């Protein structure tokens, strides 16, 4: 009988915090600046420069820890992690080893069609500074260093080895991302590197007590890449075990284009980073009052929103799940509904046209920039029959792209619905005269012919006719003996 294996996975998740300035200096953390323009003597490791801790980093770290059911170390301190790499200007990183700010927490995930619940343990969350970034120039055959990212504040969330599949890993990451986004602590954009996951993975026989030898995989910048990397590494380790070869403890780099990982360096259990207490920073002491203030400021999270939406709004559960999967989308829904008091119509626009345009343009819900007021105005224009549904979709695209004022846009473009019955009757009579075959078909029992005649009428009216009035007048004309 073939041996059965299980995968054991733990994650180290690095999250860039959404502070305006870096962790130990006042340089900007904004993404995408020209290389080495967001730098100063502190974040480039110049001799004699001294770090000063950003208070907001502590508040974000505590807020995430509370959301992840962690114990908070109200007395914690920083340590120096010494290593030598070109993108690490000081030749050390200020991190936390001995007294991290948060420890012993968990998040609950749901997987499978039956939404099976499972708690994933969090060993610790610690604060640290990010390193710079190496850019490898293949044309010039050299590497360049950009220190803009050096000193950007990070929290590292270290899980217990509690995950057993790629599905559980993605559920865990999505839960963490939502908690952090709802807190406003980070945008968690994997493609921009503001959320990065290193996967520690081993395999063992089912029911075995000991863990297998683990590898660590880096360079994973999308959920799809993480899934593919886990599946490929699981297969690779099982094949080695079946062949009687040892799995080597090492760090591996995932190449998503080739769907293959290759060894970067071996990794011993006790790699000597020569940690020692950071001499330039005093310990952090979080008072009971400060901790209480952070706890009191915690927002309504997704699960709480879902429960409230079920009670307050008459919208399907599917809509609720999609809308609350983005903090920005949930805020947009609530603010628009508060203005127009029509939750189902707001939900329809978000679930329909908004999701379609996001997919078409390859955007995330967090990238939506139109205002709730303009969507509420559009809904009102349709309700008042100032514009019809077809024109509303055209106007919405302009709202989505440029956040135009729908009242002004409809007026300037002359898109208001034609509701004058005399005008409509003249157009409809002309359409009936020009399409005797369709009229004959309709009167002969082919009711679909009515749809063709409505379409021709709307074409003549350039899509601006009121469908209700057009259908009524057309019906009256066709049913005359």
Automatic annotation (TrEMBL):
GO biological process: glutaminyl-tRNAGln biosynthesis via transamidation; translation
Asn/Gln amidotransferase domain sequence ranges: 331-478
Record's catalysed reaction(s): L-aspartyl-tRNA(Asn) + L-glutamine + ATP + H2O = L-asparaginyl-tRNA(Asn) + L-glutamate + ADP + phosphate + 2 H(+); L-glutamyl-tRNA(Gln) + L-glutamine + ATP + H2O = L-glutaminyl-tRNA(Gln) + L-glutamate + ADP + phosphate + H(+)
Keywords: ATP-binding, Ligase, Nucleotide-binding, Protein biosynthesis
Function text: Allows the formation of correctly charged Asn-tRNA(Asn) or Gln-tRNA(Gln) through the transamidation of misacylated Asp-tRNA(Asn) or Glu-tRNA(Gln) in organisms which lack either or both of asparaginyl-tRNA or glutaminyl-tRNA synthetases. The reaction takes place in the presence of glutamine and ATP through an activated phospho-Asp-tRNA(Asn) or phospho-Glu-tRNA(Gln).
NCBIfam families named in the record: gatB, PRK05477.1-2, PRK05477.1-4
Record protein name field: Aspartyl/glutamyl-tRNA(Asn/Gln) amidotransferase subunit B
Organism encoding this protein: Diplocloster agilis
